[in-house]
Amino acid sequence: MPTKTLQIPTADGQADAFAIFPNRGERYPGVLLYADAFGVRPVLEEMARELAEHGYYVLVPNLFYRHGPAPVIELPEHIGEGIRPAVFAQVMPLLEAHTTERALRDADAYLRFLTTQPEVSAGPVAVIGYCMGGALAIRTAAAHPEQVAAVAGFHPSPLVTEAPDSPHRLFPELTAQVHLGLAEGDMSPERINRLNQALDAAGVGCSAEIYPGTLHGFTMSDTDAFNPSGLQRHWDRLLHLLDRTLANGGDPGVSSQGRCLTSGEQSALPRYE
């Protein structure tokens, strides 16, 4: 399965990126994958490869390209709790510089690039993200409702804030089907209630749940938060979402709006091995 190293023209320069897709000489639905705050690294390539094996063209840009090519900061092979403070001391300036305005300009460029690749089929695409990438995925889908049919965020950074452009305020702009996979402790009960209210008011087709027994970052195998069952549940939910929205040219079929579930509740979705 080929991995292609890329340079994406943006309004502010060139974003380095990579793409992984099946090597069958066909065209595949496009997926834009936003990394977590630690950025592009081997675990992201592993996850992109896993997704590509299910028949998708997966584009992973370096969100911090303005500060240099990936890896922008030096990361250990395993980001344990003891090293996290030192890593975040390097990451925080990158996060603070990645403003909403910059993120939206970049999203324009990423989608334009993704949808014009010869290996990508015509039709809508999906945007998925982890940690900070979850909020970026929602912003991207809201800004491009005509292009994005599916959006997923896993252990996302805060989706309900007091900011005028808080992600939950963008739900009325979405036409995409949504899945949100929260870790236990990602959101307070009060903010979950506000998230539910925003989803209901917007009529968003959404499945959202708290993954039992998980910590923030549970999908990332190079951190202490990694939870194998949480990662598998993530694949179950994500592949089901993409199959419904992209596999048949973007026809999502029947979908109902959803609410965030408590950690004891589970959705009856098929398992993908």
The major beta sheet can be summarized as:
9 strands, mixed
Strand order, main sheet: write it out: 1-2-4-3-5-6-7-8-9
| Low-pLDDT residue intervals, each spanning 5 or more residues | 251-256, 262-273
Give average pLDDT, whole number.
91
CATH classification, class level: Alpha Beta
| Total discrete domains | 1
The helix tally amounts to 6
Distance between the termini: 19 Å
The string of secondary-structure elements, in order, is: EEEHEHHEHEEHEHE
Give the helix/strand class: alpha/beta
Our Rg estimate from Cα atoms comes to: 17 Å
| Annotated CATH topology | Rossmann fold
Give me the CATH architecture, please. Answer: 3-Layer(aba) Sandwich
User: How much strand content do the residues show?
Assistant: 15-25%
Helix content: 25-40%
Count of DSSP strands: 9
Kindly report the name of the CATH homologous superfamily.
Answer: Alpha/Beta hydrolase fold, catalytic domain
Basic shape: globular
